[in-house]
Design a protein that fits this description.
Chain lengths: 246, 369
C-alpha cells in the first residue's frame, strides 16, 4: 500500500448530545480516488469540514497531508483544494480574473499564475472565452473550470463535495476523466456523491450510516460481500437501517 | 499583503462592473443633496403676502420696502379693509398678512412702542412659523438700522427672535450633515452586508474559508473598497454643498474627514455584523434599510428634533451612531467648531464602533461550525 495522505483515528464530532460523526477511522493513500458516500444527514459534511480544517473535532485524531487537524489547520488549507456542489467561482468576473484571484489568494507568484492560467485555458479549450464573464458559460464548462481552479495551486488532496450535481451525463463523464488525470499525477481525490454509477469510478468507497463508517472497500469487494449486482443495491442495503435522515 | 491586494482588486471589480451598484453608490448622494436642497427644503422663497397699511407713514413705508426687497416675499396685494383678509387667504395662495395700525410712526416716536399685526395661514404650521419668523427678522433688521442711525435705542417694535448660526435662515445647513449621515449609513451598511452575504449565498465564502486566506482578512478586504468609495461620496457631497448650495465648510476640513472616516468604520462594522447574522441578500438588504435608514431619519435629529421626543425615545436616540455623527458634522461644518467642542461625541462614536467591532468579530466564528 502506498503512503497515506489522510489518516483518521476515531474522529468524532458532537453538537451537544448529538453525535454527528462517531469514531470514524480510515486511511486514504496518495493518488487514490476515495468515494465518501452516505445518505443526507449521515455525517458526511461534518466529517469533511473537520478534514478541511474548518471545524475542530470533539475527539479522535486525524492528519491531512501530514498535518494535524487540531493544530495545523493553516498548513492543511495550503495543501488542499476544495470544490462544492454550489458553483464556486465568481460569475461577475471573467475566466482569467477568477484564475488570477484564486491563484492570488493561494499565494502563487504572478508569473506562475500566468503560466498555469494559460495552460488551464488551453487544456479546457477556453481560449475564446478567457475574457468573458464566467456567468455566461454553460454549467458543464463552469464545473470543469471550477475543478481546474481548485487544483490550480497543486494541492496534495482535493475535496469534491457532490461536484457533479445537476450536470448532464456527458459532462459528468468528461469531468471524471479530469479527475482520473489529476489522480494519475498523484493528487488524492476525496469525493462525495449521490450518483451510484460515479461510486463505481472510485478506487475505494466508504459508506456512512448514522455517523459511523459502515462499509469501506473497493466497489467490487463491496458488491461481492453484499451479494449485490450494483452499488445501488449495496447502498440501499446499508442505508435502509438508518435511524437518522433529514 | 499581496493576497490582500488581490482580494481588494477583486472587490473593486465586483462594484465597478455592476451598473446598478454604481448608480446607487454615486447617484444617491447627488440625488439626495439635490432633492433636499431644492425640493424638500423648508426654506421659503417668494411667498405671497398681503399688506394692509392703515398708517401710510414713513416708518410703515420703510418696513414695507424692506419686505418687498426681500427674496422671501412677494407682496401680492394691498388691502384696505379687514373683510378682504379672509377673502385673500381663502381665494389665493396668500400665506400671510401684515397689518400696520393707524398712527404707527406716531406711536413709535412718542410712545416708543408700536405693534404690527402678523397673520399667518397656519394650515401648514411649519410654513407659517417660518414665514412669521422671517417677517420678525426683517422688522428686527429695520430696528437695528434705526438704532445705528440714531445712536441710541429710539423705540421698540417687536419681540426679539434671534437665529443663531443660520442668520439667513438657509434651509440647507441642517440637511447636509443629515444627508451625509444617511448616505454613508446606506452605502456602507447595505453594500458591505450584501457583498458578504452574497458570497455566503453563492458558495464562494466556503471556498474562501477553505483557502489559506484568513477569515479576518476576508472581512478587512471587503471593507476597504467601501471605505474608499465612501470617502469619495463625502467629497462629492461637500463639493455639491459648497458649489451648488452655497454652503461653505466653516470648520477644519481634515477634522471633518477624520470624523467621517470614524463614522464610515462604524457603518462598515454594522454591515459586517448584519452579514454575520443573516444568510440571504434580501434579508440583509431589508435589515440594512429598515434597521439603519429609519433610525437615522428618526433619531439623528436631522428631520425631527430629539428634544421634543418623549424620554424613552430620547434614550434610544443615544445608541444611534448617526445622531452623534450628525452633531459632529453640524458643529464642524456650520458652526466652525474645533475638536475641543466635539471630543465627547467623538468618544461616544468611537465607543459604539469598538463595541460593534467586538460583537461582530465574536459572532464571526473563525471556524464555521
Amino acid at each position: 500500500m502506498k503512503e497515506a495522505v489522510i489518516t483518521t483515528d476515531k474522529l468524532t464530532k458532537r453538537f451537544g448530545d448529538f453525535v454527528a460523526t462517531n469514531e470514524i477511522s480510515f486511511e486514504v493513500s496518495r493518488g487514490e480516488i476515495f468515494g465518501f458516500l452516505g445518505a443526507n444527514g449521515a455525517g458526511k459534511t461534518t466529517a469533511m469540514r473537520m478534514l478541511c480544517g474548518l471545524s475542530t473535532p470533539s475527539s479522535g485524531n486525524a492528519s491531512i497531508a501530514g498535518f494535524d487537524v487540531y493544530r495545523q489547520t493553516e498548513q492543511i488549507k495550503k495543501n488542499i483544494g476544495y470544490m462544492s456542489q454550489k458553483f464556486s467561482l465568481y460569475e461577475d468576473l471573467t475566466v482569467l480574473e477568477n484564475i488570477r484571484f484564486f491563484g492570488g489568494i493561494y499565494g502563487l507568484s504572478r508569473p506562475r499564475i500566468r503560466e498555469k492560467g494559460e495552460k488551464l485555458i488551453k487544456d479546457l479549450g477556453l481560449e475564446q472565452e478567457a475574457k468573458k464573464l464566467v456567468g455566461a458559460l454553460p454549467l458543464g464548462w463552469k464545473q470543469k473550470l471550477s475543478f481546474s481552479v481548485a487544483i490550480l495551486h497543486d494541492p496534495q488532496i482535493v475535496f469534491l463535495d457532490e461536484p457533479t450535481g445537476g450536470v448532464d451525463p456527458v459532462t459528468r463523464r468528461q469531468f471524471w476523466n479530469m479527475i482520473y488525470e489529476a489522480a494519475d499525477r498523484g493528487v488524492t481525490i476525496f469525493v462525495t456523491t449521490h450518483y451510484m454509477d460515479e461510486a463505481e469510478y472510485c478506487n475505494r468507497i466508504s459508506i456512512m450510516v448514522d455517523g459511523r463508517v459502515k462499509a469501506l472497500d473497493t466497489p467490487r469487494n463491496l458488491k461481492e460481500h453484499f451479494g449485490a449486482a450494483t452499488m445501488d443495491e449495496v447502498f440501499y442495503a446499508l442505508a435502509r437501517g438508518a435511524k437518522r435522515s433529514e | 499583503m499581496k493576497q490582500l491586494l488581490t482580494f481588494v482588486r477583486k472587490e473593486f471589480a465586483h462594484v465597478l462592473r455592476d451598473r446598478k451598484t454604481l448608480l446607487i453608490l454615486f447617484g444617491m448622494p447627488v440625488a439626495q443633496i439635490l432633492i433636499f436642497g431644492f425640493a424638500l427644503t423648508n426654506e421659503v422663497k417668494n411667498a405671497r403676502i398681503m399688506i394692509m397699511d392703515q398708517a401710510k407713514d414713513q416708518a410703515s413705508r420703510q418696513i414695507i420696502d424692506k419686505i418687498e426687497a426681500s427674496r422671501y416675499f412677494e407682496v401680492n396685494q394691498y388691502i384696505h379693509h379687514r373683510d378682504e383678509l379672509e377673502k385673500g387667504f381663502k381665494q389665493g395662495d396668500v400665506r400671510l398678512a401684515v397689518i400696520f395700525p393707524q398712527g404707527f410712526d406716531h406711536a413709535l416716536q412718542h410712545l416708543h412702542q408700536a405693534q404690527i399685526e402678523v397673520i399667518a395661514d397656519a394650515s401648514d404650521p411649519n410654513y407659517a412659523t417660518t414665514l412669521s419668523s422671517y417677517i420678525s427678522s426683517i422688522i428686527q433688521d429695520y430696528q437695528s438700522e434705526q438704532v445705528a442711525a440714531a445712536g441710541h435705542l429710539p423705540y421698540q417694535i417687536v419681540p426679539q427672535i434671534r437665529f443663531l448660526y443660520n442668520p439667513q435662515l438657509k434651509g440647507a445647513p441642517n440637511f447636509v450633515p443629515g444627508v451625509m449621515a444617511l448616505v454613508l449609513m446606506l452605502v456602507c451598511v447595505m453594500m458591505t452586508a450584501v457583498s458578504i452575504v452574497k458570497e455566503k449565498e453563492t458558495g464562494t465564502m466556503e471556498i474562501l474559508l477553505v483557502s489559506p486566506f484568513s477569515p479576518l482578512m476576508v472581512i478587512v478586504s471587503k471593507a476597504i473598497p467601501y471605505l474608499l468609495l465612501s470617502l469619495i461620496n463625502v467629497t462629492t457631497i461637500l463639493l455639491l454643498s459648497v458649489f451648488v448650495l452655497d454652503l461653505p465648510v466653516q470648520g477644519n476640513l481634515i477634522l471633518l474627514f477624520a470624523e467621517s472616516t470614524l463614522f464610515i468604520i462604524t457603518c462598515l462594522t454594522l454591515g459586517i455584523f448584519i452579514s454575520v447574522k443573516t444568510s440571504s441578500q434580501q434579508v440583509a438588504m431589508l435589515i440594512s434599510l429598515m434597521g439603519m435608514m429609519l433610525p437615522t431619519i428618526l433619531f439623528s435629529g436631522f428631520m425631527f428634533p430629539i428634544e421634543n421626543m418623549p424620554w424613552p425615545l430620547q434614550l434610544i436616540s443615544n445608541v444611534v451612531p448617526s445622531k452623534w455623527y450628525y452633531i459632529i458634522v453640524k458643529a464642524i461644518m456650520i458652526k466652525g467648531l474645533g475638536f475641543a467642542a466635539i471630543w465627547k461625541e467623538t468618544l461616544i462614536l468611537a465607543g459604539i464602533t469598538l463595541a460593534l467591532l467586538v460583537i461582530s468579530l465574536k459572532s464571526f466564528k473563525i471556524r464555521l461550525s
